[in-house]
Design a protein that fits this description.
53% helix; two-stranded antiparallel ribbon; 2 strands; globular; 12 helices; mainly alpha; Hypothetical protein af1432; binds fe (ii) ion
Amino acid sequence: MKLTVPDLGKPILNVDVVTDDLLRLMPSGTAPPPASVALLLTALAQHDGHTYLHSLRVGRRAWRLALALEGNEERAWHVYIAGLLHDIGKLNLPRALLHKPGPLTPEEWQMMRCHPEEGARLAAFAPDLTLFLPAIAAHHERPDGRGYPRRLLEPEIPAESLLIAVAEAVETMLSRPPYAPAMAREAIYRTLLAGAGTRWTARLATLAAQDLVRAGSSAMPYEAAGRAAGSSLPLNGPDSSPFL
Ligand SMILES: [Fe+2]
């Protein structure tokens, strides 16, 4: 099935490519990915192409960080799925809000800040996604207790959420969302280290910074294959300048 980004008016990476990647990385003895994942990602792609692509990148990057952190393939694979679903609550937000240029009003921020719990509420309708609800609900919490929506402290935040949070930060800084310019990788590296222990756990911030240097900006190795098959993806941030 060919998906089109409504706001970009061009075809984008097929959900089948993502589910194939999940199957390829699935550790032996693990149950296949929940069927609801493809369903929700398809709905997200149709609602907002930018959030869809962001979710694929966050999922893949969070998987890579989880594997580097613990070396546990099964846990990393579950983090991948949770990452794919982390922003699913944005299905309930108007596209005009998601694409609004410039700062949000206090009322708009209030709506935006509901998306983690909205996502968990939405995913709760699918019995095969129960395992992922806590990670979705807490993906904007911070170790220093200044996150949202519940201002949890680090010990209360699911490990999956901590991984998704740092992967999401990197992808947001790398990509070109409609409302902000991308950052150079060197600036992202510095931002990660500056937020170590407050915005992200010190270990994850360091790991994400090292991963940025080692692996570069691409979180999705299948991106080139998607392009060859006729899909197109907006490129990740400026890679032309030498980094470190
Ligand atoms: Fe989010």
